[in-house]
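Sample intake sheet
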Amino acid sequence: MQITFKLYASLAQYLPPEARSGNQVVLDVAPGATIAQVIEPFALPMKLVHLVLINGVYVPPEERATRTLAEGDVLAIWPPIAGG
């Protein structure tokens, strides 16, 4: 099945070079793939995986290892952001 995987801010550097300018890549993943399984090959430091959304809906940290994705889902991740 296909999903769209989006990484924002400093996390975009973990995408393949050709996908970095658009901050997203379409992935073929196994049916029933979890958030954790999708992000594992990208070697994201877990301390930088702060805000996780599926189709615009927040996924709390305790659900990220077991929450599965469906065909056409959009998985978006933001790092912690500090401002002043």
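Comment: Strands lie at 2-7, 24-28, 51-54, 57-58, 74-78. The first strand starts at residue 2 and ends at 7.
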